[in-house]
Amino acid sequence: MNRITVFTVLFSLACFTSLVAAQGACPSAPGAERAACICKTVGTAYKYYADTGNGCSGASWCYGPGQSTYVTCQAGLLFNEKIQACDWASNVICTAPPSSSPTPSPSPITPQPSPGPSPSPSPSTASPSPSPAPSGGCTSSSYTQPGGACGSANGLCCPSSSCCSKYGYCGISDAHCGSGCQAGYGSCNSSGGSSTPSGPSPVPASPSPVPASPSPTPKSPSSSPSPTPVTPSPSPAPPSSSPQPPNTRASLPVGPLVVGYYQTWSAGWASTGANLDLARIPSYVNVVIVSFAKPDCSYTKGSFQLTGTGLDFSSDGTIVRDAITALKTANPNTRVLLAVGGATYYNFAGTRPQCIKDIIDDFGFDGMDFDWEPVNSNCVVKPGGGVSCATDAEGVSVLAALRAALPKGQYLMSTASWHVGMYGEGAFVSSKPASAYTGVNLAMAKSAAGQSLDLVNIMAYDAGNTASTGFDWSESYRAHRAIWQSQAIAVGVEIPPEAWGGNVITLPQVVERANYVKSSSTSGPYGIMLWSLHKTGCPNAQQITSAVCSTFGMAGCSTPLPFTQSACGNPPPAAPSPSPASPPANSPASPSPANPPPTTASPSPPPPPGNTGCSSGSYAQPGGACGSANGLCCPSGCCSKYGYCGISDAHCGSGCQAGYGSCSSSGGSSNPAPSPSPSPVSNPPSPAAPSPSPANPPPSPGNNTSSGTVADVISSSLFDQIFLHRNDPACSSNGFYTYSAFVAAAAAFPGFGTAADAATNKRELAAFLAQISHETTGGWATAPDGPYSWGLCWIQEGMKTPADHMAPYCAESAEYPCAPGKKYFGRGPMQLSWNYNYIPAGQALGFDGLNNPDAVTQDAVLAFKTAIWFWMTPRDPKPSCHAVMTGSWTPNPADMAVGRLPGFGLTTNIINGGLECSGTGTVQGQELDRIGYFKRYAALFGVDTGSNLDCSRQQHY
């Protein structure tokens, strides 16, 4: 034993002694107080300490001076301090001291290239925290966390004598330390760290699912995540590498179709396939479409590793395979398809048909759903009819390649078609609404591959209705049937609220659609499609699917769905109409995320005596959804014809629902009634990647002119809905980013969010808030309320990293010097970075950016001001983001030649184009996160996003 080893052992024993003392002296109850006490007593930061005083059922996470939190393991698991993760109890020695030579893991494992999402006690953090250097063999001076990513891919070494596996993760098992172990980034040996195989082993500890974001040159992106304890997702047996037999169920179910999209990001963890909710879907939902896989996926056949597929299950791949097998075994008439694409996986130019086929074959899918939702179709209806779209060739060629890989008769293929996708020619040349996506599916539908499809699912939502946009779902059905004459066609419905257009469908209208397609069955097989089985809202998925089941005369319609349902009650009957009344387009609405809050508001106290005539004993929240659609009354004020509580003319005047609140001819406001937006539909309809929102707020009473202040557009309650988790205890920003600070900062910049018409102002604010949310995101793929509800989680880059470990971000020049000892890393909502940004920001805002960059983290008003200053300030040749989003900037010929066109994507180029705008057409993961936030916020504001959302085809500045 050498001196270093002796010192390490003595140091470990000293730490253990201190830890034991802390465990006994601190509050006994698991929680934040116990964690704070233990971390203060031990004094060693950047580590999880198993809670031995409570049987290792959780751990104290010490991540900086005075920074701590408590994490609790899932039932049946204990915290294993060796791997810094929750683990099977059989693998945990609860009283073992930390050691420089860890006890070997009991069982070798097959490591994943990167972990699947798992329930996480806290959001992703600002950047990986350095750990002590390993005992030997490291070629780098930078270290990852225990169990973190390592190796040649990122140049990080493993701490504490652990090994860096061939897949790039730290650990101590045979899989880490044996074959393929990266010797230059940690310890390695021939036998690894395991000698006694036993029960199932955990997945290696790993970072939160949000990918790390590199640091840009001119501007810092959102900070990189730190590791969080990972709940293992073991399978009862090692994955089989033998392929599944060829799929023989290549025909549609017998009888009418009830098609349900299944959100993988909403699926909880399961230990067996039979326990996964996917396996327990009742037989009347006879086409289950699992969403979403990436068209440009990466997957090794036989591996059952989900990383690189796009599928966001928390469970292991073998569990998913077994769940599909169990579902189809229990329900022989059910077909399970793999949805490829969606609103955020749209790199179809990089489609890999063989990869998709391998996933389908291995997991036992019956085929695929071609969910092609191109971003910039720019469709043009020609004079006299006919449509030309920029994406026609892509749709035809990609579908042909996929059909060649998945031959008809061996695999089923469906498509999710746009609501206006078959308009623009023949009897439908002038069908409404006009849109940049009018006729986007025509060329593909008429092609040989398009005609080989088995099922067409019309996304007959996210388009408003006849009252708001002129959209008639039955007309869309007829346009689809005109081209797809023999295919099965399912008309889609979305659980309210819809992502765009504000339509709120009722159960009678669902039944009406089911009866319509049933009566049209002489034209071909028929059905109803639901987006989505997991989504919450009223009417809920159970009510909708059971109603359709009964209308179609199917069996077992009362069998419950295995998903959480909103408590909607039994709404009063409503007269069906071809296109239901709906909130105007400026009424916020968006789809729900993984595990969202129910869209039904919690009951409010009964209304005051002045609010009489309520036909229901249940009440909405003030400003919440009300009326015949959900059977809720307003606690005060009026229930508008669109189904929202309020006191304006629009609520209390024409169409006011007298049975659900007060009504009068004059209403409670002199403002003009809100009117539907006449703008073309430009948002991609769902099925879409998650875009969460809380319960819908009331419609904004409004004019078509500019609001006076930002506070007139963004209320305190809307601010809270946008930033649902900014005050989460796991976020360092807890209590820092207040509404009052934002409003005060905004008031200092005339024109910010107020320079144009109401819709443009809201779109600008949605874009700004989306960008700062990405820069400070704490979200991950399976985060509560979805990945786009965790903006403003961090105050500065590297919150868990000591300042002396942070990069200086200094590019010194005569004009922009650097102060001795000062560092200019990202701070504030826009993560202001580099000395050449701090100095002019300080000059403009009245603080010493050169000598006191920390001022940005000490004053919330100043922090918001730095973000708005960056947004409003042009830097030649870059325009300001404000000018881009308000339409006051016009691209010159040079800009147009390199694809720099107005839209949200250009603001990303301005902020971080050097890293995210490749010019290749490939949308980067960071940019998808920005777009996801923007879509959610635009829906909350009730405006469309406009075009050119990404900068993948733009040359950066």
How is this structure best described in words?
It is a single chain. This protein is an alpha/beta fold. Among the domains are: 3-117 and 129-177, no CATH class; 257-551, TIM Barrel (Alpha-Beta Barrel), CATH 3.20.20; 797-859, Endochitinase, domain 2 (2-Layer Sandwich). Strands 8-9-10-11-14-15-16-17 form an 8-stranded parallel beta barrel. The protein has a 3-stranded antiparallel sheet with strand order 1-2-3, with helices on one face. The longest helix has 23 residues, at 3-25. The radius of gyration is 28 Å and the shape is globular. Mean pLDDT is 76; it is low at 1-17, 96-136, 190-247, 570-613 and 665-707.
Quick tags:
957 residues; alpha/beta; TIM Barrel; Endochitinase, domain 2; three-stranded antiparallel beta sheet; disordered N terminus; signal; chitinase activity; chitin-binding
Task: Describe the structure concisely.
The protein has 957 residues and is an alpha/beta fold.
Secondary structure topology:
Elements: H1 3-25, H2 32-42, E1 47-50, E2 58-64, E3 67-72, E4 77-80, E5 85-88, E6 163-164, E7 170-171, H3 174-177, E8 257-263, E9 287-293, H4 317-330, E10 335-341, H5 353-363, E11 367-371, E12 380-381, E13 387-388, H6 392-405, E14 412-418, H7 442-446, H8 448-451, E15 455-459, H9 473-483, E16 488-494, H10 507-519, E17 526-531, H11 541-551, E18 638-639, E19 645-646, H12 649-652, H13 710-713, H14 716-722, H15 739-747, H16 758-775, H17 835-845, H18 860-872, H19 881-886, H20 893-897, H21 904-916, H22 925-941
Parallel strand pairs: 8-9, 8-17, 9-10, 10-11, 11-14, 14-15, 15-16, 16-17
Antiparallel strand pairs: 1-2, 2-3, 4-5, 6-7, 12-13, 18-19
Biased composition (Low complexity): 123-139
Organism: Tetradesmus obliquus
Protein name: Chitinase
